[in-house]
Design a protein that fits this description.
The protein is an alpha/beta fold and 254 residues long. Helix content is 51%, strand content 16%. The chain is built from twelve helices and nine strands. A six-stranded mixed β-sheet has the order 1-2-3-4-6-9, with helices on both faces. Strands 5-7-8 form a three-stranded mixed β-sheet. Helix 4 packs parallel to helix 5 and helix 6 packs across helix 7. The chain is globular.
Length: 254
């Protein structure tokens, strides 16, 4: 089934969910997030799915927030950034709560919230030339929605350094830090690497996979909605400052 902004296909035990704004490098808009929530709702009701692959249409995975929706002078809606960030936070919870194992196929740039989406998946796979990272501080922003995800993924010490340093890195460096779990040498070999992981997972027992994922979620506190909503509010408050709005507006004009 499809929408303009997100697509979902299910083939036996494997589902494929794609962000579908390739011309905008799959930047996170409210509309894209609404589409992803609708497709995840279908996944929640789909029987027999053991593995869900999340990827981006085109050459990017997700380039982060849509600047046209978070620059208030552009959108004219001061509450839109909070709605976007809150929706992103709720999406991370829903992906974690899916009974299927969620695999991020990071086919290209995964920036900011896009890198957070990759990290919230149970397993993330990319290629060496992909660009990943959390450049929020470079833009005057606070990565409060994705910070809890990254802390759980790579630990507080490494996450502190990554989030405070900003910038982006290639796929090999992201693999070294643990931001992604597997890396292929090239974009061309990404499908082979991903398919091998998906095939191995799909051979497992559906009940065992779901129970194990649920157990780990409880152990690491992944489904704490209060942390996510506080993060969305903090991110929105920082985003609304004059400093952040000036930096984002200048970036939008480039």
């Amino acid at each position: 089934m499809t929408t303009d902004h997100a697509t979902l296909t299910i083939d036996g035990p494997v589902a494929r969910l794609a962000l579908n704004r390739p011309e905008q490098r799959n930047a996170l808009s409210v509309e894209l997030l609404d589409g992803l929530h609708a497709r995840v709702e279908e996944l929640e009701a789909a029987p027999g799915v053991k593995v869900t692959v999340v990827t981006g249409a085109g050459r990017a995975f997700c380039a982060g927030m849509d600047l046209k929706q978070v620059v208030i002078a552009e959108s004219g809606d001061p509450e839109l950034p909070h709605r976007l960030l809150s929706s992103l936070g709720r999406l991370t919870l829903r992906l974690r709560a899916l009974p299927s194992v969620v695999v991020a196929r990071v086919n290209g740039a995964a920036i900011g919230g896009g890198c957070g989406l990759a990290c919230v998946c149970d397993i993330a796979v990319t290629h060496g030339d992909a660009k990943l990272g959390f450049p929020e501080v470079d833009l005057g922003l606070c990565p409060a929605v994705v910070a809890p995800v990254l802390v759980r993924k790579i630990g507080p010490g490494q996450a502190r350094r990554v989030l405070l340093s900003g910038g982006v890195m290639d796929g090999h460096h992201a693999h070294t830090l643990g931001i992604v779990d597997e890396v292929s040498d090239s974009r061309e070999s990404l499908d082979e690497t991903t398919d091998a992981i998906v095939g191995r997972l799909a051979a497992g027992g559906a009940d065992a996979l779901a129970a194990t994922k649920s157990l780990v979620n409880r152990l690491d506190g992944s489904l704490d909605a209060s942390v996510v909503e506080r993060g969305a509010r903090l991110s929105a408050d920082v985003l609304a400052t004059a400093e952040a709005q000036a930096i984002l507006a200048a970036r939008l004009e480039k």
